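Following up on my earlier thread - several people asked me to post the actual chain instead of describing it. Fair enough. Here it is, all 338 residues.
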Amino acid sequence: MFPLISAIVLRRLLLAIPTLLLLSLVVFVVLRMLPVDPLVLLLPASATAADAAVLREQLGFDKPVPQQFLIWLWQAFNGNLGTSINFRQPVAHLMLSSLPATLELTLAGLLLALVISVPGGVLAYALYQRRRETAADLAVASMQSIPSFLWSLLLILTFGVLWPVLPFSGRVGVGVALPDITGFAVIDLLLVGRFDAWLTALSHLLLPALALALGFAPLVIRVLRSSLIDAASEPYVEAARLRGLSETRIVWRHMLKNAALPTVTMIGVQFGFLFGGALLVEMIFGFPGVGNLMVQAVRGNDLPLIQGIALIFCVLMLAITVIVDVLYAVLNPRLRTP
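Reply from S.P.:
Thanks for posting it. Predicted structure:
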């Protein structure tokens, strides 16, 4: 098992190098071709052309684009993603401050999506070719037709306004200071033993995570149901039925493990969309993550920060690909056969 996993990780890491270089180059060139001047917000209204030229030289924008890219690439290789034009802070510091909140929201959304979709997929399979199958398909299709941002508005209206039982703005309650340990609020507050503040952070996380989950779960339900239908005709399922095992035990103990393979692959492929949806959900709920940071970067033509966000997003997607490949190898015994 370990040699297989090592080979997968090594192969993915080797492929990641040209992928990161290519994406960095594309994003860098596209940003420099945009008809915007990042110096507009930095210069006062009384600034002269000479002042703009001096500032442009200080920031390196006066050099040819290939030279700018090589300088940025070398700095990024050494852990320096540049300095944000708007915030006047290192991009790496801003990303490290915001990324844990987005990851926490995305992972919570994924967890809730699995809690909803795994029983939902099994239920949809149980209703296959039965009278209630149409009602189940209609319910899943209805969920799938509502995007995460609309789920966000519906949840805010329901649980924040009409029935105000959950907070819908911010990451924690007013006056709660987050300890600086991992950046994940629900973990850090548990580590320092502040359980009241932990409940506050959890309640603030619930609605945005649920909005993400409700937009993502229908995809998992559909794939899991189709995989279970395919698995139902496999010989090992027929053998289990001949042994007298109950249908519930066959599904949960035997079929679900094999049906999980395409589901895991789909989740890995769609995780990028889930992460992208989290950026929009963050803005609606005022969640202080990468989404809000990205909006401020775009509004301020903050090219170094936009470049850094794009690079971190690519790294995350490559890491997710590695994790999915490793999970696939663990779950699929045929890949472990020499």
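The first helix runs from residue 2 to 33. That should answer part of your original question.
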